[in-house]
Specification:
Layout lengths: L1 E6 L14 H9 L9 E4 L3 E3 L5 H8 L8 E3 L29 E5 L1 H11 L8 E5 L6 E2 L4 E8 L7 E8 L2 E6 L7 H7 L6 E5 L14 H13 L8 E5 L9 H8 L5 E2 L5 E3 L1
Parallel strand pairs: 3-4, 4-5, 5-6, 10-11, 11-12, 12-13
Antiparallel strand pairs: 1-2, 1-14, 2-3, 7-8, 8-9, 9-10
The chain binds zinc ion (ZN) (3 copies).
């Protein structure tokens, strides 16, 4: 099972366009892992999790071929995760799509309404359809792969998802923009055994749990996952989705998280199990 991190930042990216904070200054100076695109993931070549504004940037950096995309799993409506304007370029006149290049977008009812607003009746002219997902209900992607949405505690007025990706016996949790999960989400997670848990570390050195998490909460979440048997000692835990306002460069994040055995995500990280 292979998942690539295409982006590891929160809304503004790092360095943020107009920012002179120490983290953004360090990113401009250091480059490398301190440069962070908006968070998204690619599962094999054909399933993408979230569709942010850095789609083009990721394509040209890693020579990706989006004509292979068949499924898009959307976590929530914030524009760093769902930027539907890009999808208009699937229409004829903008792109020559290969035969059978159909794309199914999975998300909440709100994502469905946003697509309706953006595309009116023309979804099928862009060779796309929409499928509404529900907490705990398996999304069958193909014969080998499925995903289970769980509820993220990210926004009180929107149903936001994290996704458990499953291929054969392997499971990877995409857990950014989670906040500290509600008890029913912990219960649902307890039915699973994860090989890899990717957790929301938006606020870095700040101790934060509401809507997003910081490094301390990530360590606590890892402990809770272990306690409940959702991960084992050999499971990998990876922090991801960082804002410059968290006050830590990649090196600073590693210094804080690696003593706890937690890896720090970066753009281009390949997770293979
Ligand atoms: Zn976000
Ligand atoms: Zn900054
Ligand atoms: Zn968000």
């Amino acid at each position: 099972m292979r998942v690539n991190i295409l982006g590891s930042a929160a809304a503004e990216g790092i360095p943020a366009l107009f920012c002179s904070c120490p983290v953004c200054r360090a990113a401009r100076e250091n480059g490398g892992r301190d440069i962070r695109r908006r968070t998204a993931y690619l599962w094999d070549d054909d399933i993408m999790i979230d569709l942010g504004p850095d789609l083009f940037f990721a394509q040209v950096t890693w020579n990706l071929d989006y004509t292979k995309l068949r499924h898009l799993l959307i976590t929530h409506s914030h524009e760093d995760h769902f930027y539907p304007v890009s999808l208009h370029y699937r229409a004829s006149g903008f792109s020559v799509l290969p035969q059978a290049s159909w794309l199914t977008i999975h998300g909440s009812a709100r994502i469905g309404r946003m697509l309706e607003d953006a595309f009116a009746q023309s979804l099928d002219q862009c060779f796309m359809d929409f499928s509404e997902v529900a907490v705990g209900r398996r999304i069958e992607l193909d014969q080998q792969r499925c995903a289970v949405p769980i509820r993220a505690a990210h926004m009180p007025d929107e149903l936001c998802f994290n996704y458990i990706l499953q291929e054969g016996d392997h499971k990877i949790l995409i857990g950014n923009d989670s906040g500290w999960w509600a008890e029913e989400t912990w219960d649902l997670l307890s039915e699973h055994r994860l090989d890899v848990a990717i957790l929301d570390c938006t606020y870095g050195k700040h101790n934060y749990r509401e809507g997003h998490m910081g490094a301390e909460a990530v360590i606590d979440a890892r402990d809770e996952l272990l306690k409940r048997g959702i991960i084992g000692e050999s499971s990998r835990v990876i922090a991801n989705h960082f804002t410059h306002n968290g006050g830590l460069t990649h090196e600073g994040l590693v210094a804080m998280l690696s003593p706890a055995g937690i890896e720090v995500g970066y753009d281009g990280m390949e997770i293979e199990i």
